[in-house]
Write the C-alpha coordinates for this entry.
Amino acid sequence: MDIRVKNVINIFTIIDGKIHLLLNKNNLIEIECLDEINLVNNEYIYKNIDIKELNLKQCYTFSKKEENKLELTVLYIDIINKDNIKLNDKFNFRELDKLDKENIYINKSIECLKKELILNSTIKKLYPKEFVLPEIQKIYEDLLDKKYDRRNFRKKLIKLDVIEDLDKISSNKTGRPAKLYRFKEIKEDKVLF
Protein backbone atom coordinates (compact mmCIF):
# COMPACT_ATOMS: atom_id res chain seq x y z
CA MET A 1 0.00 0.00 0.00
CA ASP A 2 1.27 3.47 -0.88
CA ILE A 3 1.32 5.99 1.94
CA ARG A 4 1.41 9.72 1.33
CA VAL A 5 2.00 12.11 4.22
CA LYS A 6 1.56 15.86 4.23
CA ASN A 7 1.80 18.42 6.98
CA VAL A 8 -0.47 21.42 7.36
CA ILE A 9 1.05 24.19 9.47
CA ASN A 10 -1.27 26.83 10.91
CA ILE A 11 0.53 29.70 12.64
CA PHE A 12 -1.68 32.24 14.39
CA THR A 13 -0.96 35.71 15.73
CA ILE A 14 -2.78 38.78 17.02
CA ILE A 15 -2.83 41.91 14.84
CA ASP A 16 -4.79 44.99 15.91
CA GLY A 17 -6.58 42.96 18.58
CA LYS A 18 -7.78 40.25 16.17
CA ILE A 19 -6.59 36.69 15.56
CA HIS A 20 -4.92 36.10 12.17
CA LEU A 21 -3.63 33.00 10.37
CA LEU A 22 -0.43 32.87 8.30
CA LEU A 23 -1.10 31.84 4.72
CA ASN A 24 1.11 30.92 1.79
CA LYS A 25 -0.16 32.96 -1.19
CA ASN A 26 -3.65 32.96 0.36
CA ASN A 27 -3.61 29.18 0.90
CA LEU A 28 -2.88 27.06 3.94
CA ILE A 29 0.74 26.03 4.40
CA GLU A 30 0.85 22.42 3.18
CA ILE A 31 4.10 20.47 2.95
CA GLU A 32 4.63 17.15 1.23
CA CYS A 33 6.44 14.95 3.73
CA LEU A 34 9.16 12.79 2.23
CA ASP A 35 11.33 12.59 5.35
CA GLU A 36 10.98 12.69 9.14
CA ILE A 37 8.01 14.95 9.92
CA ASN A 38 9.60 17.47 12.32
CA LEU A 39 12.66 17.76 10.12
CA VAL A 40 10.48 18.57 7.11
CA ASN A 41 8.59 21.24 9.09
CA ASN A 42 11.78 22.84 10.40
CA GLU A 43 13.44 22.78 6.99
CA TYR A 44 10.44 24.39 5.31
CA ILE A 45 10.17 27.13 7.93
CA TYR A 46 13.93 27.78 7.92
CA LYS A 47 14.00 28.14 4.12
CA ASN A 48 10.76 30.08 3.64
CA ILE A 49 9.71 32.02 6.73
CA ASP A 50 11.73 34.40 8.89
CA ILE A 51 10.28 33.44 12.25
CA LYS A 52 11.57 33.26 15.84
CA GLU A 53 10.40 31.18 18.79
CA LEU A 54 8.14 28.84 16.86
CA ASN A 55 6.99 25.82 18.85
CA LEU A 56 4.74 23.76 16.58
CA LYS A 57 2.40 21.36 18.33
CA GLN A 58 0.79 18.43 16.61
CA CYS A 59 -2.89 19.11 16.77
CA TYR A 60 -4.66 16.44 14.78
CA THR A 61 -4.09 13.65 12.26
CA PHE A 62 -6.42 12.94 9.37
CA SER A 63 -6.43 9.80 7.25
CA LYS A 64 -8.11 9.00 3.99
CA LYS A 65 -7.90 5.73 2.07
CA GLU A 66 -8.55 5.51 -1.65
CA GLU A 67 -8.03 2.25 -3.47
CA ASN A 68 -4.51 1.15 -2.54
CA LYS A 69 -3.35 4.54 -1.23
CA LEU A 70 -3.42 5.94 2.26
CA GLU A 71 -3.16 9.69 2.71
CA LEU A 72 -2.21 11.03 6.12
CA THR A 73 -2.41 14.73 6.93
CA VAL A 74 -0.78 15.92 10.14
CA LEU A 75 -2.00 19.26 11.44
CA TYR A 76 0.34 21.51 13.45
CA ILE A 77 -0.40 24.82 15.15
CA ASP A 78 1.34 27.54 17.08
CA ILE A 79 0.45 31.04 18.13
CA ILE A 80 3.26 33.58 18.12
CA ASN A 81 3.87 37.23 18.79
CA LYS A 82 3.65 39.14 15.49
CA ASP A 83 6.97 40.83 16.28
CA ASN A 84 8.68 37.42 15.92
CA ILE A 85 7.90 37.04 12.22
CA LYS A 86 9.06 38.92 9.14
CA LEU A 87 6.83 38.33 6.14
CA ASN A 88 8.03 38.06 2.58
CA ASP A 89 5.95 38.36 -0.59
CA LYS A 90 4.94 34.66 -0.47
CA PHE A 91 3.18 34.88 2.89
CA ASN A 92 0.45 37.00 4.40
CA PHE A 93 -1.83 37.03 7.42
CA ARG A 94 -5.60 36.82 7.11
CA GLU A 95 -8.06 37.66 9.87
CA LEU A 96 -9.78 34.63 11.41
CA ASP A 97 -13.24 36.03 10.61
CA LYS A 98 -12.34 36.07 6.90
CA LEU A 99 -11.26 32.42 6.72
CA ASP A 100 -13.31 29.49 5.43
CA LYS A 101 -14.60 27.95 8.67
CA GLU A 102 -15.88 24.97 6.66
CA ASN A 103 -12.28 23.98 5.93
CA ILE A 104 -11.62 21.02 8.24
CA TYR A 105 -7.96 22.04 8.79
CA ILE A 106 -8.95 25.55 9.87
CA ASN A 107 -11.80 24.24 11.99
CA LYS A 108 -9.62 21.73 13.87
CA SER A 109 -6.86 24.33 14.26
CA ILE A 110 -9.29 26.73 15.92
CA GLU A 111 -10.40 23.96 18.31
CA CYS A 112 -6.76 23.34 19.26
CA LEU A 113 -6.06 27.06 19.49
CA LYS A 114 -8.88 27.45 22.02
CA LYS A 115 -7.26 24.79 24.21
CA GLU A 116 -3.84 26.48 23.94
CA LEU A 117 -5.04 30.02 24.51
CA ILE A 118 -6.62 29.28 27.86
CA LEU A 119 -3.13 28.73 29.29
CA ASN A 120 -1.31 31.72 30.74
CA SER A 121 1.99 30.79 29.03
CA THR A 122 0.37 30.94 25.58
CA ILE A 123 -1.27 34.34 26.03
CA LYS A 124 1.97 35.61 27.57
CA LYS A 125 3.82 34.84 24.32
CA LEU A 126 1.44 37.21 22.54
CA TYR A 127 1.70 39.96 25.14
CA PRO A 128 5.20 39.69 26.62
CA LYS A 129 5.34 43.28 27.85
CA GLU A 130 2.40 45.45 28.76
CA PHE A 131 -1.25 45.39 27.75
CA VAL A 132 -4.66 46.73 28.68
CA LEU A 133 -7.22 44.21 29.91
CA PRO A 134 -9.91 45.03 27.32
CA GLU A 135 -7.45 43.93 24.62
CA ILE A 136 -6.97 40.50 26.23
CA GLN A 137 -10.67 40.19 27.04
CA LYS A 138 -11.63 40.79 23.39
CA ILE A 139 -9.31 38.00 22.23
CA TYR A 140 -10.97 35.53 24.61
CA GLU A 141 -14.46 36.70 23.74
CA ASP A 142 -13.82 36.39 20.00
CA LEU A 143 -12.15 33.00 20.16
CA LEU A 144 -14.31 31.36 22.82
CA ASP A 145 -17.48 33.05 21.52
CA LYS A 146 -18.44 34.23 25.02
CA LYS A 147 -18.98 37.59 26.66
CA TYR A 148 -17.27 38.35 29.96
CA ASP A 149 -18.17 41.03 32.42
CA ARG A 150 -15.29 43.52 32.47
CA ARG A 151 -14.92 43.54 36.27
CA ASN A 152 -15.21 39.76 36.65
CA PHE A 153 -12.65 39.22 33.89
CA ARG A 154 -10.14 41.43 35.73
CA LYS A 155 -10.91 39.82 39.11
CA LYS A 156 -10.39 36.32 37.72
CA LEU A 157 -6.93 37.16 36.34
CA ILE A 158 -5.94 38.88 39.58
CA LYS A 159 -7.27 35.96 41.68
CA LEU A 160 -5.25 33.49 39.59
CA ASP A 161 -2.22 35.69 40.31
CA VAL A 162 -1.04 35.74 36.69
CA ILE A 163 -1.04 39.50 36.04
CA GLU A 164 0.36 42.52 37.81
CA ASP A 165 -0.68 46.15 37.69
CA LEU A 166 2.12 48.35 36.34
CA ASP A 167 0.75 51.53 37.94
CA LYS A 168 0.78 53.10 34.48
CA ILE A 169 -1.96 54.31 32.19
CA SER A 170 -2.07 53.58 28.45
CA SER A 171 -1.56 56.43 26.05
CA ASN A 172 -4.40 55.20 23.85
CA LYS A 173 -5.40 58.00 21.48
CA THR A 174 -8.64 56.38 20.26
CA GLY A 175 -10.45 55.65 23.50
CA ARG A 176 -10.45 56.17 27.21
CA PRO A 177 -7.07 55.55 28.89
CA ALA A 178 -6.82 52.24 30.73
CA LYS A 179 -4.48 50.68 33.29
CA LEU A 180 -1.52 48.75 31.96
CA TYR A 181 -0.76 45.22 33.14
CA ARG A 182 1.79 42.53 32.38
CA PHE A 183 1.89 38.79 32.89
CA LYS A 184 3.92 37.53 35.83
CA GLU A 185 6.73 35.03 35.47
CA ILE A 186 5.07 31.79 36.51
CA LYS A 187 6.74 28.41 36.36
CA GLU A 188 3.62 26.26 35.92
CA ASP A 189 0.80 26.80 33.46
CA LYS A 190 -2.56 27.90 34.80
CA VAL A 191 -5.85 27.45 33.01
CA LEU A 192 -7.37 30.90 32.66
CA PHE A 193 -10.83 30.06 31.29
